[in-house]
DNA sequence: GACTATTGGGTGGATATACACCTAATAGAG
DNA sequence: CTCTATTAGGTGTATATCCACCCAATAGTC
């Protein structure tokens, strides 16, 4: 309408084109789907991701895990502690540099992760399958671009 | 490697192709960008989205807002209460059906939202501009598909 | 070796999110 | 009109997330 600042975008435009809202909405939805899939093995989606990150390298540090997942370091600290309390991972001080704490899966953690992998593939295939192959590839590239900002 | 269960996906494959992890990573990154943009006006990204949802319809209910944003109803309740405490919105019981609570922006809420709109456009354009136009369109479609699951 | 800067990490607080469970108001069946 | 089902919503709990601030260990300088 006239009378409002012409420099301001209309509310309809914002609601339609807000990337933040779209990504957050999708994030909640996909997180819930993976939570449901992992519930029988007692994990949620980020715990699965964290277990994966712990196994990805040899004894990754808190900082390495946080950087890899793009989360705040203190968030990684607190989430790792929960997995540690449940006995799925171990954190131990590095021998050379005593500031550093390195993570590793316990035997139980490996078992839980193995049990989760089949469920992961099912739900990941299901979600990916709802997109056309070229759309999935484009989505991955776009998400990576956004994540690196 | 041979020796592991052939039915299990390799850890490398999982790390590379996990849609949940990618979406969550992008969600954290973009949320942080919008948080930074809105910080000068005292909002964060979801508060902005919530204010937008409150103005989108005439006096939307808690359920309507939660459905529109794909968030849990109880999450909407608690987030709305924070905006209410700050005096940015008002919740009032519907005259016809006293179970229903309808939301509306206060004058201060409108001012804050107006101040945020310019910042929104800057950061939304910046993020969208890092993608090619057809990639952005494809991203929007893919995110909507995922959100509707 | 002492002083300072850098780095790895933790704590406390505010808010974000969802689940299990609950209350209150309305709607519908008889 | 009463009883029950449905619907709108809230509370408590556990965990997720980030920020401001802190501590301890190492590295670098002299």
UniProtKB/TrEMBL annotation, chains A, B:
Domain HTH marR-type positions: 16-148
Gene3D superfamilies assigned: Winged helix-like DNA-binding domain superfamily/Winged helix DNA-binding domain
SUPFAM superfamilies: Winged helix' DNA-binding domain
Classification via InterPro entries: ArsR-like_HTH, HTH_MarR-typ, Tscrpt_reg_MarR-type_CS, WH-like_DNA-bd_sf, WH_DNA-bd_sf
GO molecular-function terms, A-Z: DNA binding; DNA-binding transcription factor activity
Keywords: DNA-binding, Transcription, Transcription regulation
Name of a matching Pfam family: MarR_2
Record's protein name: HTH marR-type domain-containing protein
Organism of derivation: Teichococcus deserti
């Amino acid at each position: 309408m006239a009378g409002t600042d012409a420099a301001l975008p209309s509310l309809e435009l914002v609601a339609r084109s807000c990337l933040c809202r779209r990504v957050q909405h999708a994030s909640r939805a996909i997180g819930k789907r993976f939570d449901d899939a992992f519930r029988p093995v007692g994990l949620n989606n980020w715990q699965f991701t964290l277990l994966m990150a712990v196994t990805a390298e040899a004894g990754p540090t808190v900082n390495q895990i946080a950087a890899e997942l793009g989360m705040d370091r203190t968030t990684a600290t607190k989430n790792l502690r929960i997995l540690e309390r449940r006995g799925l991972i171990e954190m131990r001080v590095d021998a050379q540099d005593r500031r550093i704490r390195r993570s590793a899966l316990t035997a139980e953690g490996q078992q839980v992760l193995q049990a989760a992998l089949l469920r992961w593939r099912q739900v990941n295939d299901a979600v990916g399958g709802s997109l056309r192959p070229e759309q999935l590839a484009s989505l991955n590239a776009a998400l990576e671009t956004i994540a690196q900002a």
